[in-house]
Amino acid sequence: MSTRMCMILGAVFLGVTTIEALAPRAAFAEGKVGSDSDILGLRLSMSPDEIRQYFTDKLGVAKVFEMKGGIATDTYKAPVETFALIAQTVSSEAHDANQKAADAVNASSAAHKEMGDNSPIVSKIGDFGFNKIKVAFFPKEAGVTAILRQQVYTEKERPTMQTTIASLKEKYGMPETSTPKQLPGFPVQFIWTSHAGLSKKGHLWDFCLNTTNAYFGGIDTMDNYANFDDRGNASGIVQNFVNTADHDTKLFHLTECGVVLIITLRPNNAGEYLVQLDETLIDISKGQMAINAYAADFWANAKKAKNGQMSKDVQRKPNL
Q1: How far is the C-alpha of 220 from the C-alpha of 191, rounded, in Å?
Q2: Residues 6 or more apart in contact with residue 99 via CB below 8 angstroms
Q3: Average pLDDT over residues 145-153
Q4: Nearest Cα to 259, choosing from 279, 283, 286?
Q5: When comparing pLDDT for 127 and 213, which is higher?
Q6: Backbone torsions φ then ψ of 276, nearest 5 degrees
Q7: Are strands 38-39 and 259-267 parallel, antiparallel or unpaired?
Q8: DSSP states of the chain as a string?
Q9: Mean pLDDT for the chain?
Q10: How far is CA 4 from CA 45, 149, 213, in A?
């Protein structure tokens, strides 16, 4: 383990060693989302086993990829455990459209190269579609902590932006905050929270969003297979998770963040139709406090193992 990793773990918020009932210190009215809010029927209150079952029974996912990993020092190795699931559904129509687009690009590229033109050619956005879902439950004691979905629509499947926004407000209510009106074609983002008025809390709101972004240091690389070893382990991603344990909790407390739902809509150039939908439902409090507890426990075990090794080493006498 790197020196930086050891420093990060040593600076963990040691006051949090359990993930019992999480009640915010500040007083908030109940917001629009919570642990029972869902993305495609998937909820933060579900267990990992229930998520697996839902993938196959309700969403028709043929294969669910399990993310496994653990971290270690020179003298201590944490157990490798499954910390996330990834599922992707692609319709046969979308798959065929994607393949045709790829074949067309390859043919065009070959033709251009024959004419001496080596400039890159790319397929048109939206000529294929997919639905990718990531579910994180790290560490496992925390249960499900985050659900992420990315939906890319084919041109024939695209809903209008107007209908999509109306549907989101119908399901989740009016958002806590949203991006100001943009020029056509620019992404639009909406945020809902479990603690009403959280976005108006200035530095606390920034603290919660920064914590979320840090947490995503582990999530965003989940399907980057360069991070896996030959057994499918992704210890580097686990380390990214644990790196987020270094937070200043003197001014704010993680229980004040609660559950946050972030939805980003990416329209076509005219701004009329939805090309891509990104959804993130995360329990910042539960997830980050569990990581802090995991990091504190890991560091305590690593220190104990190091001291044990040192006591053995001091008994070894040199040959003089």
Answers
A1: 19
A2: none
A3: 91
A4: 283
A5: 213
A6: -140, 140
A7: unpaired
A8: --HHHHHHHHTS-TT---------SS--EE-S--TT-EETTEETTS-HHHHHHHHHHTS--S-EEEEEE--B-SS-BPPPEEEEEEEEE--HHHHHHHHHHHHHHHHHHHHHHHTT------PPTTSS-EEEEEEE--SGGG---EEEEEEE--TTTPPBHHHHHHHHHHHH-S-SEEPPP--TTS-EEEEEESEETGGGSTHHHHHHHHHHHHHHHHHTTTT-GGG--TTSB-HHHHHHHHHTT----SS--GGGT-EEEEEEEEE-TTSSBEEEEEEEEEEHHHHHHHHHHHHHHHHHHHHHHHHHHHHHHTT-----
A9: 77
A10: 34, 32, 20
| pLDDT at residue 21, as a whole number | 46
Q: Which two structure tokens, joined as six digits, stand for 157?
A: 């499947």
**Beta strands 130-136; 146-152: pairing state:** antiparallel
Beta-carbon contacts of residue 232 (< 8 Å; ≥ 6 apart): 66, 68
Q: How many CA atoms lie within 13 A of 259 on its CB side?
A: 19
Is the Cα dihedral 297, 6, 8, 282 positive or negative? negative
Q: Which of 48-52, 101-105, 287-291 is predicted most confidently?
A: 48-52
Q: Can you tell me the distance from the alpha carbon of 29 to that of 197, in angstroms, rounded to the nearest whole number?
A: 8
Pairing verdict, β 259-267 and 130-136: unpaired
Alpha carbon distance, N-terminus to C-terminus of the chain: 33
**93 versus 44: which is more confidently predicted?**
44
| pTM of the model as a whole | 0.77
pLDDT in tens, 183-206: 888 999 999 999 999 988 888 888
| Residue range 218-257, pLDDT digits in tens | 565 565 544 444 444 566 667 777 777 755 555 677 788 8
The interaxial angle of helices 203-219 and 235-243, nearest 10 deg, is 170
